[in-house]
Amino acid sequence: MTRKRFIVELGYGSDLHGGDMTKAARRAVRDALSRSCLCGLFEIMGMTDPGGMHVAVKVGCSRPEQVDAAAVLEMIPFGTRELEVVSGGLSVRGLDLPELGEGDSIIVAVAALTVSLDRA
């Protein structure tokens, strides 16, 4: 069997206070998921179990080593999952408000979700 791509969706997420890479990455994945409807996989491709799909997640952020992979992947509700975190996104100076988090960094992460099915 060969894995065939059916959907690629992009998302954006940020952490405005605290510089939390995982929070920004999770928000980017949630943003991409919020615009993804899988009805074509069911109605055209005949998929009956969403667990049969594969979701590849690629996230770009300024400090990829600080992303908690398990926390990001738990955003995907079904199917097999894989995650690649690369250097990218954006980090800019914001406000240092200790009540909201540590530091003054605004972190932006981008995510690409690719949904595939195994086909003969």
TrEMBL record:
<dbReference type="GO" id="GO:0005525">
    <property type="term" value="F:GTP binding"/>
</dbReference>
<dbReference type="Pfam" id="PF09585">
    <property type="entry name" value="Lin0512_fam"/>
</dbReference>
<protein>
    <recommendedName>
        <fullName>Lin0512 family protein</fullName>
    </recommendedName>
</protein>
<keyword id="KW-0547">Nucleotide-binding</keyword>
<dbReference type="InterPro" id="IPR037103">
    <property type="entry name" value="Tubulin/FtsZ-like_C"/>
</dbReference>
<dbReference type="InterPro" id="IPR011719">
    <property type="entry name" value="CHP02058"/>
</dbReference>
<keyword id="KW-0342">GTP-binding</keyword>
